[in-house]
Amino acid sequence: ALIQDVAQDDVQNISIFLPPCNEDADKPENVYKFEDILSPAEYEALQVPAAVFVKITPEEITKKTEEKSHCSFVLEELKFLPADEKSRDHKARCLWFLDTLIKFSYLKVIKKKYPMGPECPHIISRKLMKSFTSLTYNNGSVQNLISASMKAKITAYVIALALHVNNFQIDLTILQNDMKLQESRMMDIAKAMRLKISKAKGLQELENDQNHKLGTLSLPLPVQKASGNQRKRKKMN
């Protein structure tokens, strides 16, 4: 119970879970640097599993959409893969990792060494376990757990990568649905990441008639407001 208390307390301070932010960046792509999300070695390892996305056909995208085999954001972006070979490969790798990261966030306690299956490169499995889980003790053994604070961290990295994929403007509502988060939680994380939030107008195919929120990363960055994180901690009896 104490460990859970600490985890919940940590959640209140989202900022410590964000990717490194370069406040003096001269262009949006340098605010959250790509190498801080995926190292060159990790990026290299994604070439093999992402090949399925590189070669994907419109018919396969339709089938995957019906089967809901990937998250909505990724399925939507697969429709707009560039024709240029290098750009297509780059976007495919990013989308494959983004899809894996979102699916990883659904797990609670991770019991297997390679939780995302054999097609996930070992270096990526290691990254997921090392960067996005908390260690907890249960019945005398150590377990990897995706706590509320780790879910916030995964969300922040998903947002950062999605911004790189989609020209620094993203539909936060689609990602929020993919991550299975409440809107207030998504907005807290997006604002902490200095995104400008606006309402999406005139978008077709809005599911559940939700008012979709767009998040844009543009310079100069909005000034960080003192957030509600200063709430007093509950006294321990």
From TrEMBL:
Q: Where in the cell is it found?
A: Nucleus, Nucleolus
Checking PANTHER family in the record gives: DNA-DIRECTED RNA POLYMERASE I SUBUNIT RPA49
Main subcellular location of this protein, as a coarse class:
nucleus
- Which domain of life, per UniProt? Eukaryota
Instruction: Supply the gene name.
Output: Polr1e
Keywords of this protein's UniProt record, alphabetized? DNA-directed RNA polymerase, Nucleus, Transcription
One annotated Gene Ontology cellular component of this protein? nucleolus
In Swiss-Prot or TrEMBL terms, this protein is called RPA49 polymerase
Q: Provide the GO biological process annotations.
A: DNA-templated transcription
Instruction: Please tell me whether the keyword Transit peptide is annotated for this protein.
Output: no
**What organism is recorded for this protein?**
Psophia crepitans (common trumpeter)
* Family to which this protein belongs: Belongs to the eukaryotic RPA49/POLR1E RNA polymerase subunit family.
In alphabetical order, the GO MF annotations are: DNA binding
